[in-house]
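Appendix B: a complete holo record

For completeness, this appendix reproduces one full record from the ligand-bound portion of the collection. The bound molecule is magnesium ion. The inputs are the chain sequence and the ligand SMILES; the output is the full three-dimensional arrangement of the complex, encoded as structure tokens. No fields have been trimmed.
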Amino acid sequence: MSAPYAREQAIALSTVLKASLLAQKIQAELVGSGGVEKKDKSPVTVGDYTAQALVSALLAAHFPSDAIIGEEDSADLQRPEQATVKAQIVRLAGEAMREELPLADEERAWADVKRVERGDTEWMAAIDRGNSEGGAKGRHWALDPIDGTKGFLRGGQYAVCLGLIEDGEVVLGVMGCPNLPVDPKQPEGDKGALFVAVKGQGAFQRSFTSPTLTRITMNSLASLSAASFCESVEAGHSDHGTNARIAELLGITRDSVRMDSQAKYCSIARGDGDIYLRLPVSATYEEKVWDHSSGSLLVAEAGGIVSDMHGLPLDFSLGRTLKGNKGVIAAPREWHKQVIEAVAKAVGEEGK
Ligand SMILES: Nc1ncnc2c1ncn2[C@@H]1O[C@H](COP(=O)(O)O)[C@@H](OP(=O)(O)O)[C@H]1O
Ligand SMILES: [Mg+2]
Ligand SMILES: [Mg+2]
Ligand SMILES: [Mg+2]
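The structure of the chain with magnesium ion bound, as generated:
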């Protein structure tokens, strides 16, 4: 008998790999060209839309009764001035559907899907299938088709992120990081790492080119002062100043590593860094479930604890956002409590 979620894992892996290869191809053509601007002024590109259309269409084919909480919707795209962008998405998604992938035999059998020709309407509907409101009951796939869009646009790190939330709990997380080195010891070597974790089954990575999965674990640290921090590049997404004070309180002297996207979770899960800090910059911002579902399970399964800034577990049962939480802190299991204490002290000093 297969392990629990083996079928979901195979399908999520192949789907995320497909979308990651597509994003890689689009990034090569797109860097520097901007994209569509959303109402909140954040960027969204052909890559974001095409990847969401692709993943969503594949999930619908395999799991027709599951809901999808996807970041994007087609509203801005349906404006007449976006007709060229829309045509590009339809072409790229169709091409990506036909690509062959390096998969293990069993994975290929599970991931195989009947070829269906889709036009404009079907691809736009696939994007909008990501409109689930989430919640505490049932199966919801959380999809961030491109996380770190700003990194994607500047040629840096970005990730395709897919998590399965069942009755409010993340049970499967898959992430594709096209620009992350397969071997962190060889930063200039092959790029493109795919990560997967199933609840209770550990965390693994593979390259984009070979199906072999290798188990990953966080570093075991002799002391917190030897740790290194990972944080956003964007100062508007996480508070760099407070992070620096937390480092000081913990005796950490190494420079923090700034990186776009949920690649930060992957990076600490395999020991390239140790602690991920995401302290709120705005009092009203609610973190999104698609920004944290897959990454948080990956870190938990690699030996860490992921909580909010107060040490509370992330609550994925409340809809499209983590409205019950503030900020995110991920650290090795044995050091997490001390990190939370330092966060409380640093934030207390600021009188926030
Ligand atoms: N004020 C804010 N605080 C925290 N996160 C924010 C934010 N505004 C946008 N974001 C999120 O930050 C994500 C990128 O995180 P990071 O800075 O770690 O790369 C974005 O994901 P997308 O790039 O998928 O839109 C977006 O969801
Ligand atoms: Mg995101
Ligand atoms: Mg995104
Ligand atoms: Mg976005």
